[in-house]
Amino acid sequence: MRYDTWGLALLTAALLSACNPVFNWREARFDNAPLVALLPCKPDKGVRSLPVADRVVEVSMQGCEAGGVLFTVAVAQLASPAEAGALLGPWKSAMLANARTSQSTDLPFALPGATPWPNAVRASFSGQRADGSPVVAQVALFARENQVYQAALFADKPQPEAANTFFAGLKLP
User: 22-168 maps to which CATH number?
Assistant: First the structure.
């Protein structure tokens, strides 16, 4: 009888763990932008001022951490579409500088509904966090009209499946 109870407890624990996935994908929306993103956990929200090139940009952000991966989505409102497009390159450079690296592997990033800027990219790079620990990152930078978007994930090691789900979940209706 004692073994039956133990077996039932193990079976219950196994079933409950199967119902608790590491990545519980859900839609996240911004109040000030049309972007819809898939995030694997309930995001925290905030507004930050980020230095990009020779200016400071106010950015609305959402992000969360799941399975040892930090997922972030950010949007900045600029004065004009041309200004938004021109900020994509410096934004990427600022991210690389923050990660203490200057090299990335870039692929064009053409999200349906985004303005087709030639410097809209999905970049992958390895660098260091602020505490000096290693980090690998994948980042998508793109713009629509006068808004610049950044979708990024940061982890200790590459997470290709999570990255593909994350980036495929970006929508500009």
Answer: 3.40.1000
